[in-house]
Amino acid sequence: MDIDDPGDFIDLQQQAEQLTAEMDSGTDLPPVERTLQQILQAGERLLSRIAPVSQDATDVKASILLGTKGYDIPKISQKLEGLSAAKTYEPLEPVRDTDIQGFLKNERENALLAVIEQTRRSTFEETEQHHWECLENEWEREKQKILNALLGSGHETIDFQPETESFLTDTITMKGRSNLDEIEMAYAKQVYAYNEKVIGGSILPNLAEIFTDMAKTLDDKNVSDIWEMVSCMVNIPVAIGDNTLARRLDRKVQQAFVQNAKKYLEQTYTKFITNTISGNLQRALLGGVPGTYNMVRSYLNIRPVSPTHGGLEDGTVDGHPTWAMIYYCLRCGDLKAAQQVVQKTAHQLGDFSQFLQEYSSSRDYRLSHGTETKIHLQYRRVVKNSTDPFKKAVYCVIGQCDPNEDHAEIADKIDDYLWLKLSQIQTDPASTDDSTGDHFTLQKLQTLLYENYGESHFNGYQQPFLYFQVLVLTAQFEAAIEFLSRIEKLRCHAVHVALVLYQLKLLLLSHTSQAQLLSKEPADPAPIRRLNFARQIMMYTRKFEETDPRDALQYFYFLRELKTNQNENLFMTCVSELVRETKEYEMLLGCLEKDGSRRPGAVDKFQADTMKIIELVARDTEAKGAFEDAVRLYDLAKKPNKVLELLNHLLSQVVTQPSAPLSNKDRLKTLAHSIAERYRGQGLESTKSNTSSFYLLLDLLTFFDLYHEGSHEQALEVIRQLQILPWTADDVEHKVNSFRYYTDEIRRSLPDILLATMNMLYSQYKNTKNTAPQNPLSGKSQKEDGGKETFLNYLRSQARAMIMFAGMLPYRLPGDTNARLVQIEVLMN
């Protein structure tokens, strides 16, 4: 065919047009209704729109436009080129020496740049330092938490290969019953009763006496001895001031400690002699007037003094060595009985009767300076070389002579050794200040027993009660508590001894809650140690806080006056961690009734600021990422703004998902609706942005539920009423401006809203093309009034408005969203 022939070309054109008219693609795409000439013209128009414009033409147009506004393009270009800033803060290049103005300008700019660079470096250094400090603090808290969990688990050793059966048994036991044993439960009952009186504001009982009475019911002599010892030691003058260290170092308090320790040792020794006599009444030949004198005489009848010990230098009394009789009377704490012995042999003892008389009449059991000098001289010249160990011991007690002498011949037990050493302690101001002289102070005895001898010397783990006694009777309470805490079976006793001392303000506390259980501060005199009381309580409660959270609260209540390193109330902090660990929100913090009132929880009985505690728990829960629990806690704390803020965050993540039973969306939707109904009824309000976003998200939940259920007509009606999207081209700009005021939670849902709406419009478009439903615009059949095409154009205009809206939004939509929107819009043309 010769295409140069015009007739042939016209025939070819007519055949192409006929083929085009008869062509049926079989798809939903509209048929092509343009001729080849129209297609050619449309292509030329499109080419003219996308053809690149030369740079010169662009510059000319820009110059004309800006020139009409009064701008000089060449000058502006020069200024813009001169505004190029360096990317680093390096000093500027020096200028010539002859250019003074340039030199000064350069120096000024260099100085500014140097300050900026220095500030930048210091800022980075401070930020990095703060970052590492935060990490270290967080790691310290985690280490403490892990250690507390390990020590509170009830196992002294950790088995890294547990058997499955035993693990399941332990789990069932933990969840099925209390982890408190009988002794711990007995202590917990007393703590509960004591706290009840503290909260009630009544006269506080003596906590030490309460535990002492309780220990007598346990049928354990060692435990009873612990509490008798503690009760005796804490009987000291009333505290003045809050400085525990100053009080512990006070002369009168130390003197009270020494006298109390001696009194306890004398009482226990009297009981020992009495029991010995009761078991040997025939040999004892008790008889006579009841009293210490006859008791000592009877005891020596049973256990006479060995000839190897001497004791016959100054005669006998009732057949027993005089000095032995005096020593045992002093050992029982009865000075009158000792004077009775002295009176019977006064002619043989020289000046000693005067010494004993002055010693007995002294309030603090001290001789005058002159008498003390005299007895010391007599001891060095005569008594020290005596063969009678009882005579040397009596002189050392009465005259406080030779504190380095151990008196091993008669002090063969630790009780006798402690009594002799305590009797030689001098607590007057002159002796206390003399740390290098011969004065024997309580600090020197503490150092001797704790640092020089130590735990291994007394076989601490084999004889824990003995070593505990050594530390307590020398007023080393913190070390005694820490030692007993290391033994699992005795830890509960140590904790409650610490409670007694803490309540009496006798316990030296660590300066930080992250310190070791027993620590030493550089400024404290030796051998002072400090106890991390808070850590000990948390270690103890870790064992049973999951099964007995109410009892754990009772122990945490003792921490109400302490602060954490972040200056937060330690009681509130512990309660927060307890709630988060056990998740017993309703039992501990209470719950909301239908009318919005809060039913009290276990924390309310402590008369603390419960709402502040709940808010703290909510903040900690939010910080851990448990947002759903944090919503309920903030709701309980009457913080509607935080409730809606977190709910908006949670709902925005699930609002577009299909609903399913027991799903996150279903649970959050139920929670959100219940809160919305209550807030409407009670008139609780949050910020305007949170409130509007919350209720809009609730409506969007309804919209997407209808969409996923296939109820497109109802879903479109809901989205039209929300007025988020434009439905005509005239509304696009207004909706774009309104979009700027939406929160991020709404903005994140917009791509799915657009896609869902476009899908429903396209679904209506297809249904309209394939059927002839009633025209929603006229109410008549589309075949009757020819409204089918009108309705299709109506749907197309809505889709074009959506595309325009998506393109003008100041928000970056996902790339696939734009592509899908355009694809759907193309299918509708």
TrEMBL record:
GO terms for biological process: poly(A)+ mRNA export from nucleus; protein import into nucleus. Keywords: Membrane, mRNA transport, Nuclear pore complex, Nucleus, Protein transport, Translocation, Transport. It is found in: Nucleus, Nuclear pore complex. Pfam families: Nic96. It comes from the Eukaryota. The keyword NAD does not apply. One of its GO terms (cellular component) is nuclear pore. One of its GO terms (molecular function) is structural constituent of nuclear pore. The keyword Secreted does not apply. Belongs to the nucleoporin interacting component (NIC) family. This is Nuclear pore protein.
